[in-house]
Write a structure and sequence with these properties.
The chain is an alpha/beta fold. A hairpin with a 2-residue loop joins β9 and β10. It is elongated and about 100 Å long.
Length: about 650
């Protein structure tokens, strides 16, 4: 009896859901007249073949069962498999002497069917590229099982597969489990940042994790951070030896657009991307972009995850190597310039949808004919897009500056400001706005430079760096003074800069000086007929009054700001002013009114995905419930707030 798969590996993690699906399907398959077909697809290095072996071992019910293995890449010539040769291999594995294997394809099919009729034969077909390569290899028995391993789904597999599994890279938890099983090395716990970097480098690919494990075993006296640096350089320069040839082969099978998109994705901003992003990056229109992306998915060069696609880090490095060999500097530059402008346009649309009209200085990017826009159905969708795309957006700021696209670099900071107000990613925003200041200065745009300095100041003071924030604001005020107040736009910019100074003074505890700045800014906004600015300064004055112990005046100011925000249709400010009003009303004994305002603010924060704001409102609701004697409700609110702060996500 033939048994052609290797012994089980010493270390294997995860994949329980996939195994359970296959075993359930096998149990339900009895009585069928055709073999059970299991299709495994996924990127090279993800452990597809090893999972196929594991399935084959467990589905073998009797030592008399034949277990066959066939790697179609061993038979592939110029991208084509002669299926008659594949049948010949299987027939010889089934014990047919070479001299008795039939000569023609049709005759070999009949011979194979005869040999497998009524028998329990498990066949693992590795590295299939087309369903037409697999169909002739199916045993002629309902007791037979075929496990097909491919890079991407085999859409032309006749009658399909009973079980289709798209194998993704391991998540961090299981990747670390595999690494710990392989090396049991104390350095993993002693250097958590380097260990996390190692997981990120390996991209969840078991093949890469095995390479990392071998490096750790070989160099036991080196620090993990040193090993990470050395392994990063090695893999980025040479690739992963086990799968490099597989990736090269898949790349060579791509058409011109697919190959070009793959090369461009190696330098794309952000670790994930959507089909719309791919279309914009390629720059050849919707149909060509989607066709190219579909080709990459079929080739197993892209990890598809719901609406998002991902190019694992090692595949990104491979794509960059292909770009260096097969592409050109002009191709890369054009693609990156195009994607920067597309992201800027989408961010401007999302910002306007989520936050409404506000003071911005960048020109709107016109529609790009080769790249359709993302459709934002509502404010919540636009706000979520800014959060899910934040890595790409921040990456685009750096990319734009590197390519001399100064207007785009500081222009991207404007929608990122709206995002920052709900999501405090300080390292990202500080880097972005410092780049924005440099870009505005290099472009000779003093208004933009002043605005960037103001917006840079806020994360600085929120991080406790009051001196640096003050320095940025002093420079911004100097620029505004030099510009003068000849136009309403310049006066508006000046009022906004004074507001930022007031906010810094408030952060330092000087509320009296802050109130004077807010009052001065409000007068300017009223004079130039800017109702939003006047509303915002009324809210700021309410904050100052509350901090100075003037609760009744604070309530009056917050009520006016809340009403004005509602009339202007500014959802975020309606929620903020409502919450602020609620906190003051609570101190004035008007708990019922305060609770209604808290509940409305909570709904808005959740719709915008503003987790820090949500936790703050839940704290207030907990205090209100506890004051009313509802301790259980208070504890529930505090538990949800705790989970949010711990990054545990929504709690039902």
């Amino acid at each position: 009896m033939a048994y052609q798969i290797p012994p089980e590996t010493a270390h294997f993690v995860d994949r329980e859901p996939e195994l359970a699906r296959v075993f359930r399907a096998a149990a339900e398959w009895r009585g069928q007249s055709r073999p059970l077909c299991v299709a495994l697809s996924g990127p090279a290095g993800a452990g597809r073949t090893e999972l196929a072996f594991r399935i084959a071992r467990r589905l073998r019910q009797d030592p008399a069962d034949e277990v066959l293995y066939l790697d179609l890449d061993d038979l592939r010539r110029d991208g084509v498999v002669e299926v008659a040769d594949a049948l010949g291999e299987l027939l010889r594995s089934l014990g047919v002497p070479a001299e008795f294997v039939e000569q023609t394809f049709r005759a070999r099919c009949k011979q194979y069917w005869t040999r497998t009729d009524g028998k329990r034969v498990v066949v693992v077909v590795d590295n299939a590229r087309y369903g037409s390569e697999v169909v002739p290899l199916l045993p002629a028995s309902g007791a037979g099982i075929v496990i097909v391993v491919s890079h991407g789904p085999l859409h032309d597999l006749e009658h399909g597969a009973a079980v289709e599994l798209s194998l993704r890279p391991l998540d961090d938890e299981h990747a670390m489990e595999l690494l710990e099983r392989m090396v049991a090395d104390p350095r993993l716990a002693a250097e958590p940042e380097a260990a996390h970097g190692l997981l990120r480098l390996c991209s969840g690919l078991p093949a890469a994790l095995h390479v990392a494990g071998r490096w750790m075993r070989r160099h036991r006296l080196r620090s993990l951070s040193r090993l990470l640096a050395e392994l990063t350089a090695e893999l980025h320069e040479k690739g992963l030896p086990v799968v490099e040839a597989v990736w090269d082969a898949a790349y060579r099978e791509l058409g011109p657009d697919g190959a070009r998109l793959y090369r461009l994705l190696g330098g794309a901003p952000g670790p994930e991307f959507t089909p719309e992003t791919a279309v914009a990056l390629l720059g050849r229109g919707l149909d060509a972009g989607l066709d190219a992306l579909e080709e990459l998915e079929t080739a197993g060069l892209v990890d598809a995850r719901d609406e998002y696609r991902r190019l694992p880090e090692l595949l990104r490095a491979h794509a960059r190597r292909r770009a260096e060999r097969d592409g050109s500097a002009a191709e890369t530059t054009d693609g990156q310039r195009r994607i920067v402008r597309w992201y800027l346009r989408q961010a401007q649309i999302a910002d306007a949808t989520a936050a409404g009209a506000r003071m911005t200085l960048a020109e709107r990017v016109p529609a790009l004919p080769e790249a359709p826009d993302v459709v934002f159905a509502d404010k919540a969708r636009a706000a979520r897009w800014l959060e899910t795309e934040r890595h790409a957006l921040y990456g685009c700021v750096r990319m734009a500056y590197a390519h001399g696209l100064d207007a785009e670099a500081w222009g991207l900071c404007e929608p990122l400001w709206t995002h920052f107000l709900d999501h405090r990613h300080y390292a990202d925003v500080l880097d972005a706005f410092r780049t924005g200041v440099a870009a505005a200065q290099r472009a000779g745009h003093p208004r933009a430079a002043a605005r960037m300095r103001c917006q840079l100041a806020r994360p600085l003071w929120e991080q406790g760096d009051f001196a640096a924030a003050g320095d940025e604001l002093e420079r911004a005020l100097g620029t505004v003074a030099a510009l003068g107040a000849a136009t309403a736009a310049d006066r508006k910019l000046g009022a906004s800069t004074v507001e930022f100074r007031g906010m810094l003074r408030a952060a330092r505890g000087d509320w009296a000086s802050a109130a004077a700045d807010f009052e001065a800014a409000r007068e300017v906004h009223r004079a130039i007929d800017n109702p939003y600015g006047a509303m915002l300064m009324t809210y700021r004055l309410g904050e100052a009054a509350a901090a100075l112990g003037e609760s009744r005046r604070a309530a009056e100011l917050f009520e006016r700001a809340h009403a004005a925000a509602g009339e202007l249709g500014r959802e975020r400010m309606t929620a903020r002013t409502g919450f602020a009003l609620g906190t003051v009303l609570d101190t004035l004994g008007r708990a019922g009114e305060a609770r209604a305002l808290y509940v409305a603010a909570l709904a808005s924060a959740r719709a915008r995905g503003a987790r820090a704001e949500e936790a703050r409102i839940l704290d207030a609701l907990a205090g209100s419930a506890e004051a009313a004697g509802h301790r259980v409700e208070a504890d529930e609110h505090r538990e949800v707030a705790r989970a949010l702060r711990a990054g545990e996500g929504p709690v039902d």
